[in-house]
Specification:
255 residues, alpha/beta, 4 helices, 11 strands, transmembrane helix, OxRdtase_FAD/NAD-bd, FAD, FAD-binding FR-type domain-containing protein
Amino acid sequence: MDFLATAEGQLFVAVAVGIVAVGAAYFLFSSKKPKVCLDPENFKEFKLVKKTQLSHNVAKFRFALPTPTSVLGLPIGQHISCRGKDSQGEEVIKPYTPTTLDSDVGYFELVIKMYPQGRMSHHFREMREGDYMAVKGPKGRFKYQPGQVRAFGMLAGGSGITPMFQVARAILENPSDTTKVHLIYANVTYDDILLKPPEVWNGGVGFVSKEMIQAHCPAPASDIKILRCGPPPMNKAMAAHLDALEYSSDMQFQF
């Protein structure tokens, strides 16, 4: 894997390219299906059992499932809705993508960046171990199936890395899945990076450009797809770059 570095005040861009058919052992469930916990129509309460501060404004939240063998039941590429209260006590609901898969039994985890003015950020910031989170799902238009494309290009910004991480991890853990993944991940500063790669590497600086996409993502073809997830301005800019590079609408997907 190759990564691009940066200086503060500019976009930090990490690029990872690889055949993600090797890595962790693939988790195989027994013939008895585990209990699925999500309900698409009703919110269910899950207990926060561990909160790990990763930086000044990022934390990892581990929520227990009903039994040690329960699974969340979230298809790869989809997300959940979390319900909480903002600083004024008003209800707020926001989508999040767990960094865990159904191979992680008995719990699920969220890596959350908490913004000073974020309404749901306030709820997560105030959560303590033993508190409960209301969750509903699954939700989303994207559902990954092994081998559905030859290669993915992933354009992520900030917390938009979480759905990319979910898809890439599912591919990595399946030895029969030969899908290639090409990831460009942008942040304003090094400290903003979620799910950090190695501490030190050589790389580049600047905004994600057409040239960068051309150099690191698969070329337009019927058997590839470019996924994008980031702040609205970035998503808009990436869509324009992809259109200019002649990626058709069928080759693009925005989370």
